[in-house]
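Q: What does the assembled structure look like for these inputs?
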Amino acid sequence: MTRKDFQSDQEVRWCPGCGDYAILSAVQSVLPELGLPKEKFVVVSGIGCSSRFPYYVDTYGFHSIHGRAPAIATGLKVTRPDLQVWIATGDGDAMSIGGNHFIHLLRRNVGVKVLMFNNRIYGLTKGQYSPTSEVGKKTKSTPFGSIDNPFHPLSLAIGAGATFVARTVDIFMGHLKETLQRAADHQGTAFIEIYQNCNIFNDRAFAYMTDKGARDEQTLYIEQGKPLVFGKERERGIRQRGADLEVVELDGSLGPDDCLVWDESRPNPALAFLLAQMEPPEFPTPIGVFRAVETPTYDREVVAQLESARESRGEGTLEDLIYSGDLWEVGEDGAISGR
Amino acid sequence: MTTFQAEDEIAAVCAAIGASFGGALGVTTTSGPGLALKAEAINLAVMVELPLVVVDVQRAGPSTGMPTSTEQSDLLQALFGRNGESPVPIVAAASPGDCFEAVVEACRIAVQYMVPVIFMSDGYIANGSEPWRLPKIEDLPDLRIEYHTETEGFQPYLRDEKTLARPWAVPGTPGLEHRIGGLEKEHESGNVSYDAANHQLMTNLRATKVARVAETIPPLEVEGDPDGEVLVLGWGSSKGAITGAVNNLVDEGLPVARAHLRHLNPFPLNLGEILERFDRVLVPEMNMGQLALLLRARYLKDVVPLSKVQGRPFFRSEIYNKVKEILGESDDVN
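A:
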């Protein structure tokens, strides 16, 4: 199978130049590589620009209602663990109306993949601020600037007990595909925040870290087992200091060995949380896999519990179920007898 | 059977819909406030035409109301409490022992017609008990499902001629990959469509599909005096009180009959004819006259509502006295 096998016949309706195209293309090129027949894939979405995603992927798909994709995907995955379920959602869909389902999906560790397109704006409704818009942002609904504190989606996910947490960027095609592949391989809930440019309503929201000249200085690539260093000459790094992280210059007196060596498999999520809190201008923006630990998935546990119940109590029949409990029979003559 | 305790009412109905998408029959249970929360998702099931059973154990409202007390005041919510033209079949149990059969009926309609069905009970039924004659397993309807697997000519919204149900093609079936969603569907292809004539057609089809359920439900039966002057027509948990009252009246030789609705949407096909036959139709309900409103609208019959919203079921005497009043006899008994 190739990318073409995962392209549906539906006309793509995103604005020209939207970051969603790159994400769609990356997903369509990763899915054929996963070794599953295409009928085993399901893409579930909510409402928003990103949630039109299922229409364009030639697999089974469900474009549902605002914020509820995690709940629908949970019901699907629990009854059909054989399917590989992907959720396409946005910062509004997942962080605002769907915030509750989002955190419960993560705490349960249902074996689905969540792609959250974060453009920090409500694009489909033409440009109101979103739960990830920065304080001070002027939008149609905040003419004097937003006074809402935004969510850090990664911190929220880590706090909710997520077992796989990653961030990537729409235009970093290689990194995006690698991250999708990692999510596909993860057994539990895999959450990826994808920085996605909305060129109409929030253009260049991530240009500070994606522009060619800024990329090296502003982007920190997290790699498993490697020290957190960045910069064109890899001349800066992240060091742990007490309960905080700090940027240090690797000027000779300090070297990469003094920097925090990243381990995504740490059971304790505290460091991943600290890393997720790093923001410009004080810090570079980390991308990559923040956390990847395997713990039992909800869907597998459900299956295991049903199997063990069947083993210990037998398959059971409807008749056994109905004909149990407090039974008696009334005879022709009105006499009552036990059964 | 797989069970799942969700984080909230909305997640519960959505997970049930997800299960139905995967080929299971999703069932979710709630009471009135929860039914309100589930409304948007029930509409999704209406649009994507997947089977779903929503159990509403009604209680005294509005809002949290009297949550441990009974009422029948969700009927109009079940019928109309969603945006758009959103027809769903409604089935109501009449007693604790009737629940099994009524739920089986709700499941039958859901899977045969690919439609969400609302099953209505209430606090009086849910907290009650009575002897129940166990059904013979072989007498139960065969609800086995045949999923669609034929790829030749497959279209997700190609309908069964008789039921108008669309095919149930579940993920994992090779060659039937398709997308569903809450946006209006193009007839047969299921692609998103904003075409004006198509929306009219699809709205009509969804309505006709639910209306056709009436062809598979038994005619309403009338008990008591078939040529009587007064018919007492009820639904749900008032059956016991109505039956007791009407039996007494009939024993007294009064021209009274009764009938009890299990199907609130669609109504049995002979309901109009029955209403026509009686001069006066008394409709006792634990609400302010919701079924009465429907009957007046649908059949232009000026039925007499008997309303009670006290969080308690009807007493037999309340119905008995009202019938006597209608008949012009008013020797109140308690």
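Chain A touches chain B through 43 residues (CB under 8 Å).
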